[in-house]
Amino acid sequence: MAATNAKKSTHKPAGTKPSAAKKVISDETKTEALQVAKSTQKPGQTKEQTKLIAQGIEKGIAEYKKLQKGKARERDKVRKQESRAKAREANIAAQDHSNIEDRAASPYLPWGLLTLSWIGFIAYIVFSK
pTM of the predicted model, to two decimals? Predict the structure, then answer.
């Protein structure tokens, strides 16, 4: 039991998140969002409300950028797969071409077999009489 209690005490509390998981929004995005929020500001709107709207716009911009990065990754994957497929096809075509050249490099085999079959045919006719 003491070992299990020691293990429990070493875990982080459930409410903490690793620092890498925090979303970092650039200053450029923040200023852009604040400008958009101020341009759409209505009369009687408080600064706190404008800041909340700017934060919402920041989140929207961050989400949009995240989606665009995902789409760019997918496009890159498709492009790489296509280039690999083309490389494979070129490699296969080169191998087929080299195999044809290898077969053409030995023309003596078919002629030798033809000559041997004619000799066998003539020998059969001569000895069968």
Answer: 0.47
